[in-house]
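Repro:
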Amino acid sequence: MMPGMSTERIKRRGPITLLCEQRRLRWTVLGGLIALVVASSVYIMLTEFRNLKGRSAQVVSGMTRAEVEACLGPPALFLESGRNDRGGVLVWVDQLWQVEVTLDASGVVSGCRCVYSHSALRRALGQVGPLP
């Protein structure tokens, strides 16, 4: 044995070992993660689900664009027709549904359809099971 060397083995500690040994740090990290998940879930539920499918049932042929916007709010997108008329498609989107309202040349509703949204939430939850 070399002089100045002790016979004790050096105990190596990595970040996982330190996290497991320090109870206060472990609970702080766990509490922070839980708070983050709850806060983001509440934010998504309150802001991104606007019951578009239910409100789109109020839209009928013959309504004007102003009446449709009064029911559904301002559209996320307006696609004009490629022709010289004023027709086009108004689009509303949330995390689960996409509503498309077709306007004719006079700005009156000629059709309305509600389809699945292509959001990240629908794609992720669709892998787990069927959605409404």
